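Cross-posted from the bioinformatics board.
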Amino acid sequence: MGNASQSIWGSMQSKGYSRRDFLQFCAVAATMAGLGREGVGEVVSAFDRKAKPPVVWMHFQECTCCSESFLRASHPIVADVLLDVLSLNYTETLQAASGFQAEKCLNDTIQNNKGKYIVLVEGAVPLHDDGVYCMIGGRTAESILHEVAKDAAAVIAWGSCASNGCVQAAKPNPTGATPIQKLVDVPVINVPGCPPIADVMMAVVTHLVVLGQIPSLDDQGRPKEFYSRRVHDTCYRRANYDAGLFVESFDDENARKGYCLYKVGCKGPVTYNACSVVKWNEGTSYPIQSGHGCIGCSEAGFWDKGPFYQHLPSFPGFGIESTADTVGAAVGLVTLAGVAAHAVMTNVRKKKIISEVHEDDQPEV
Amino acid sequence: MATRIVVDPITRIEGHLRIEATVENGVITDAWSAGTMVRGLEKILQGRDPRDAWAITERVCGVCTSIHALASVRAVEDAIGTTVPHTAELIRNIMQTTQYVQDHVVHFYHLHALDWVDIVNALKADPVKTATLAQSLSQWDKNTPSHFMDVQRKITTFANSGMGIFANGYWGHPAYKLPPEANLLAVAHYLDALEWQKEIVKIHAVFGGKNPHPNFLVGGVPCSINIEEVNAINSERLNLVKSLIDQADEFVHQVYLPDLLAVASFYKDWTEIGGGLTNYLSYGEFPTQGYGNPDKFKYARGVVLNRDLTTVHPVNPRDSQEIKEYIAHSWYAYSEGEHVGLHPWAGETNIQYAGPKPPFTTLEGYEKYSFLKTPRWKEQPMEVGPLARLIVSYAAGHTDVQELVKDTLGRLQAPQGALFSTLGRTAARGLDAKLAVDWLKEFYGELMQRVMTNQVSTFNNEKWEPSSWPIQAEGVGLVEAPRGALAHWIRIRDGRIDNYQLVVPTTWNGSPRDVNQMRSAFEASLIGTPVKNLEQPVEILRTIHSFDPCLACAVHLYDTEGKHLHQVHVE
């Protein structure tokens, strides 16, 4: 089917874009990746020499909300990414081929691009009972994951299922649902959330395929770019919290004034995510803005930290006298300490692997 | 001689589905539908706060997001005996009709179209002629030569740099019948629909904070309305919703429906294929005077048997003799044996995998072959979905449905019997989207009336505290999901979930045979389907996709208290 490794600049040239258009696109991509203007040179070189990277999207124990979220991206829109930025060669949700033709798409990609393809995983992998609780093409998810991840340049674990097991791993975890990082021996970027925010997904992919770098990760393997602040810290209702103005019951007078949702169970004080900054659906809203507390869907084990409408001080594991703030601070300190230790060990190794991959990747136009 | 073919994975669906079929002289003579993934959510629900159940069950499916949340809050409200304010019901209706429209458009263009549309053939089209064709079908302002030229250039470049998601399709198969211009039209609208679908779901973000998986609330909806306040649903938010509804209205009427009719007109032979079952079940939907008053729903509740449109049989989800689930061919065990059926309130979910040890190449010879149970209504298999909704409402005398169906059949010059087919199912989904967007406008208008008269309560807190509930309670929540009849059954004890069971649309449609060897809808509809090329069974995809399968929904059961399978746990 023609030259599969055309560079992104080559692809844009053949569509009639000028060099000037190209540089503008790179500037936007750089800003999106948090590089600022000084990063533009780096982005241009990545685009120039890099072919459209082959990508496969695996579906295991999941509900497809991550795929659906990805489709909601607004910058860039998903059609442009699928046509121009990536070569998405396998995804059970969208691909034309079924059955053995679909399996051929997957096998060809991993055989012909050893060490150069990216694996996106949606879903957890069940380990109980020889893995029979998720089978595709007569094979277990576990065996497929091992085969696909073995020669991958990097793995992105989409959403809470792949990052920390999510709902099927909630107690009593009947099928032995297991997150991806526990099963593979390649770098895994965790992008938790149920689902993750569309434009965060897009930004993480762009960071990887455009910059050729794994973004800085915290101790849980999450990009610091989007998971280093608590929802509470950046919430526009935070001033109400500080002033002691709380919703006591849904749709009471205080709810109609948009007071803080802490007393009706908001988990924003213990949840690291970008919801209150990036927001959802092209910045339309986020849960708190629409009147419901954060349920903490990007935190490991959040299903077992409920009930959702019980407010935090009586949260299991914290003293009754704790305020949301001291709880949040304690969690924050642990995370930061972990980040420092972890960054030295893993990020250096991962960046090295990724840069080696891209050095091999010569332009063909 | 019969040949057994396997299609696994079936792509462009939600979840993990395997189809095996025997083909004899180019026609399918038997079929087996297998769900091959299970998560165990019903077990996970046990012991939790019933008010949290909407969030857990919403994660059953991210494609039909919000639908399980609605079924769950209805089930809990039914159990604890509370009702929601009318304004909250309107917001729920707005969110649900939004879901219908988004889901159906995405299904048509992104999941189903490539069964009918040859994307490679679109490269041969003349963009000017394509624009002429498009303008003859609708007045959408993007139907211009330059738009189609641009799309064709994009796709050409794409094809020359590897085919990505379109690789290894059945392109060039003789079953593709559209002329190049119609193919290009559909491909252009595939991309346009992809861009548009992210807009309409902003309605979910306004009222529910996000999409996928917006927030719900037992007793109402979580958002508050206050037109004097920036921190609530105010005029700006309502204007945003209005503009999104206007866009949706345009997309459905100027793009989706014209394309659907145009494509259908080339495939009229598919009105005689894929009919399958002759029974149709709908729970009815869109309360206009309260959820407890189904006679005033937009869609009727009931069953049509044997395609007899003169009678609608009443459905009672509480009657232990009506809806039952069987496991004769499913990987489960019941304490009373293989042959009984259990009503969901008494449901058991003990998994017992009895298939081949993976990796395997076929399920042939295995009595049990799926993680789906087999639901029956009064022992009869039922088709559910948009077609079933239309048929039941048609039979119940809903004139809006009758007129729309007759008008569409007239345009296609097709008889009433054409409905009962693969193409009928696909067309019904389009009509369902049209009705949904019309009702969406109506519900929005009514919401504005409520806002104008300051009837803005969105939450009933009378039964919020579990201390106000009976010690034991049971409830059922019925929803017409985009894919059909969905119900959640809950039993509450001491403020906690004692038992929770879901019977979902794809379980009705995609389940294995029942104890009497009667096939469910997927399997029944495949029999008699022609397969020209065993290596490229596009015909199987057409019929299976016409149901819009959702396997994560269909399989969600498991109970560790039951017998574990006799295999050794391997780390």
